[in-house]
Write a structure and sequence with these properties.
The chain has 289 residues and is an alpha/beta fold. It contains eight helices and 13 strands.
């Protein structure tokens, strides 16, 4: 008999599926190739009392993932909100934030930037200055300390299927533990169910929140490749370009050195952040390569 469920954890080709009654079942995909992400809805069949086989991935509303020239790394499926976690300490990469935002924009996923460790007052001005280009673009930035009060973030997560994304050391695990008091126990349960032999926080895990929302904790990262996006998709991901799109002299303008480029003129006038535009050009170069 066919069953349906949601991928709530993954380790290699081992997946933990949450069924409609709230129980979980360790499963494997059919065949050698596996393209499942945490948050995927799937159809499966039991292959024993305590194991199943995944037959089908049901249609996704969104898929957040990164890629380099060799492979893709799926982060989360069917999410409605990407929560980008940065901190006052250690310093964060504003380019990595840009890349994450472009990936979210390409899937029409709403984005929220969380500035963690705001209790480190002396570090706060530098962190806010680094985030100022995103503030000017209208991205929401939430200030908090995961060791203090997280109700403001909990409010933002209500009714959403969210994924936490961020560099290692930004305090994502502390945030998860503050939002989901049973997260530690849940992680140990998943490790035992998947017989992974290692801590599963190196892989994405989905937690249920009390109000019916869901929160996916993804592994800390140091890079976010976007090789899977075309030039037009990359351009769409930079929301500041939209007011000038279609106003360049040449229809196939690359926004680099072409004469009459409206976006380049906006950069020179200070209306578009120069460092973000440089990131766009680098991403386009990587896409061509």
């Amino acid at each position: 008999m066919k069953l349906e469920g949601t991928v709530v954890a993954a380790h290699g080709r081992h997946y933990l599926i949450e069924l409609a009654d709230g129980s979980t079942l360790p499963c494997f995909p059919r065949g050698k190739k596996s393209e499942l992400a945490c948050g995927d809805r799937v159809q499966l069949e039991r292959s024993g009392e305590a194991q199943g086989v995944i037959d089908t991935i049901l249609p996704r509303s969104s898929l957040l993932y990164r890629s380099n020239e060799f492979r893709q790394k799926l982060s989360a499926a069917n999410v409605t909100l990407a929560v980008l976690v940065v901190a006052t300490e250690p310093s964060f990469s504003d380019e990595l934030v840009t890349r994450c935002l472009v990936a979210a924009e390409s899937q029409d996923i709403k984005a929220l930037i969380v500035l963690n460790k705001c209790d480190l007052i002396e570090r706060l001005p530098d962190a806010e200055a680094a985030l100022s280009p995103f503030t000017r673009l209208g991205y929401s930035i939430l200030h908090l300390s995961a060791l203090g009060e997280v109700d403001a973030l909990r409010t933002q997560l209500a009714g959403q299927t969210s994924v936490l994304v961020g560099q290692s050391g930004m305090g994502k695990s502390t945030l998860v533990n503050a939002l989901v008091p049973t997260a530690g126990a849940r992680t140990r349960e998943i490790s035992e169910a998947l017989d992974s032999g290692r801590h599963t926080t190196t892989h994405a895990t989905l937690y249920r929140l009390p109000d019916g929302a869901a929160l996916i904790d993804s592994p800390g990262l140091q890079e976010f490749g976007l090789h899977h996006l075309s030039r037009s998709e990359l351009e769409h991901g930079f929301r500041e370009y939209r007011v000038w799109q279609g106003h360049c002299r040449f229809r196939n303008c690359r926004h680099d050195r072409e004469p009459g480029c409206a976006i380049r003129e906006a950069v020179e006038a200070g209306d578009v952040d120069a460092s973000r535009h440089d990131t766009f050009l680098r991403l386009c170069q990587q896409s061509r390569e």
